Amino acid sequence: MLHTLKGLVLRETPVSDNSKYINILTAERGRISVLVRGALRLRGPHTGATQIFCYSEFVIYEHNDKYTLNDSSLIENYFHLCEDFDKMTVGTYILNTVEYISNEEQPEPQMLRLALNTLWALTHYKDKDLRLIKGVYEMRLAFLAGFAPNIVNCQCCGHGVESERLYLNVMEGTMLCRHCSDTSFKPVHLENDREVDDMRTAQIIISLAPASVLAMQHALYADMSKLFSFVLADELLPEFSSACEKYLENHVDHHFQVLDMLVW
Ligand SMILES: [Zn+2]
C-alpha cells in the first residue's frame, strides 16, 4: 500500500547494501522509520530530500508494518543552521527531543508544527537570542507532551506573578510566591540561589523573576504563529533557558547530550 506523507527527517542510520533508515516525524503517523534504498550513492535519487534537517514529501510503500521509500521531493531544508555551531546544536537538540518524545504511529500534527516553526525561527530570526528560542520550544514541547506546569497563580495563596521572586516546583509543576515559599516548611533545593538542604531529598525548586514566569506562560499558551514574538531582558535569559531545560529534562527523565556542546 502506498502513502504520501510530509515529514521532517530526524535521523539517518546507514545499513548494509548502500541503504539507510530515516526516522521522520509526520503529522498523520507521528514518528516512523523508512528504508531508503540506494541512499548512500552520491547522486542517488533521494539524496536531496532524505537528510536530517529536510522537510520533504515522501511516497512510501507499506508492507508488513515496514516502510520503504518510493519517491521523495524536498519542501524545505534548514541546512543554513549548520553555518553557526550554536544554531546547529540547538537544531540537533530539536530533532533529538521530538524523536524521543513523539509517539510512533500516532498523529503528531502539533509537535511537527512546533519543530518546524522553531527550526524556521532559528534560521530566520537574526536578532532573537538562541536561549529564548530554545526555552520557548522546551516549554511548548512540555505542554504538547502533556506535562505543562500550572504557573498562572501561586499554588498556596492564589496570587499571580506580583511577588518579586517566584519559585517553580519542577516535578509538581506548581509555583509559589516568595511569601508562601518563606512560610513553607518543605525542604527546598534552590537551583539558582544555591541553597541546598542537608537532607538532599529536596524537590527541585527554581527561583524565577516574574518576567521569566510570564515568558513561560507565553510559551505555554500563545498562538503558535506568535510563539517567539516577545522580548525578555538579557539578564533573565540564563534563568529562563535553564529553568525550561530543567523542566523538560526532569519530566522526560532524560538528559539530551547534545546540550553539553553549548557553552553559553
Ligand atoms: Zn503565595
How would you describe this structure to a colleague?
The longest helix is centred in the middle third of the chain and has 17 residues, at 85-101. It contains 6 helices and 10 strands; from the N terminus they run E-E-E-E-E-H-H-H-E-E-H-E-E-E-H-H. The chain has 2 domains: 1-127, Nucleic acid-binding proteins (OB fold (Dihydrolipoamide Acetyltransferase, E2P), Beta Barrel); 129-264, no CATH class. The chain starts with a strand and ends in a 12-residue tail after the last helix. With 264 residues, it is of the alpha+beta class. Strands 1-2-3-5-4 form a 5-stranded mixed β-barrel. The chain has a 5-stranded mixed sheet with strand order 7-6-10-8-9. Helix 2 packs antiparallel against helix 3 (130-144). The protein has helices at 85-101, 109-124, 130-144, 178-183, 210-221, 237-252; strands at 2-15, 19-26, 30-36, 54-63, 66-77, 166-169, 174-177, 188-190, 195-196, 203-208. Bound molecules: zinc ion. Residues 154, 156-157, 159, 176-177, 179-180 line the site of zinc ion (ZN). Zinc ion binds next to strand 7 and helix 4.
